[in-house]
Amino acid sequence: MSATASIKNTMPRCTVDVNMRTLITGANGMLARAAAEYCRSIGDDVTASTRQDLDIADIDSVRMAFTDTRPEIVLNCAAYTNVDGAETNIETAFKANAIGPENLALICDEFGVKLVTVSTDYVFDGEKGEPYIDTDRPNPLGVYAASKFEGEKRVAAANTDAIIVRSGWIYGKGGTNFLSVMPELLAIGKQLNVISDNFGTPTSAKDLARRMREIGESSVRGIVHVTNAGNGTSNLGYGQKVCEIGGFDPMLVRGVPCSELKRPAPRPIDSRLRSTDLSKFELEPLQDWESALREFLQN
After folding, report:
1. Structural domain total, the chain
2. CA–CA separation, 145 and 166 (whole Å)
3. What pTM was computed for the model?
4. pLDDT mean values, one per 10 residues, the chain (299 residues)
5. What's the sign of the alpha-carbon dihedral 137, 220, 158, 228?
6. Is 144 a catalytic residue?
7. What's the DSSP call for residue 286?
């Protein structure tokens, strides 16, 4: 199978079917909550499963869940995302990010169900100097990144119909990562040290969730990049834009180099992604990241 999205000779899908039985994993997470909210808004019969409900690293648990719920589409939002923690919790990271997605891919193939699973911009080493496209060769730096790349390879080998969505710098309602909580911290006047020399593509969980559901019923296969449009920014640039849009004091945001933070896990300096062109499926690019951020702050 090609490493990137393939386009079959079928008519493009310009509308989203409704009332589908949709299984969403990782239900406690920010992206899964956004996906559940969107899918329910279009009339889907949604089963949102937490790790306690469904341990995707246990293939028997996955098969039982499919037997019980009979999903028509699966959005896998379950993941181990603690980048620094993965350096010492290697087995946990690989179970969640590699074995789990592989199990879902195998059972989706067995039941004839479409799988959309999420990977990360961190599979790249950040040395390219411009946004990565979906045909670029990954070179993961840390354990978290290696576990996600292993998951990509296992899913592709197990199920040729699966869709692997790479995204990055995801933020949204209820998120606990720095991009998501930055507005709350600024609102209470907290001084923030924000990295000035790394770059990525901020992506709204709300926009990503909608696009995952849309491509899940298209004829896309393989790897696609999905981010909000634009050339991305640095963490500092994101913080400055939050201040500008949200009306916060820009003096609260202080730029610092990556080296000052001394984090356990290595990270790519520039992991910006170029979104895959899905226009042949009548799917337009997502809104630009600044507009998405404005929508997030206003809501």
Report:
1. 1
2. 12
3. 0.91
4. 42 58 96 97 94 94 94 96 96 97 97 97 96 97 97 97 97 93 94 94 97 93 96 95 95 92 92 95 94 94
5. positive
6. yes
7. P
Taking the CA atoms of the chain, what radius of gyration do you get in angstroms? 19
Parent domain of 158: 21-173+202-228+267-288
Nearest to 294 by CA among 251, 233, 246: 246
Q: Determine phi and psi for 162, rounding to 5 degrees.
A: -70, 150
Q: Which amino acid is at 64?
A: M
- Domain assignment present for residue 85? The answer is yes
Determine phi and psi for 99, rounding to 5 degrees: -65, -45
**The residue to which tokens 């996906």 are assigned:** 35
Catalytic residue among 80, 122, 144, 171: 144
Nearest-angstrom CA–CA distance, 143 and 92: 11
Separation between Cα atoms, residue 97 and residue 224, nearest integer Å? 17
Tokens at 204, concatenated:
């709204």
137 exposure class (CB count in 10 Å sphere: 0-12, 13-18, 19+): exposed
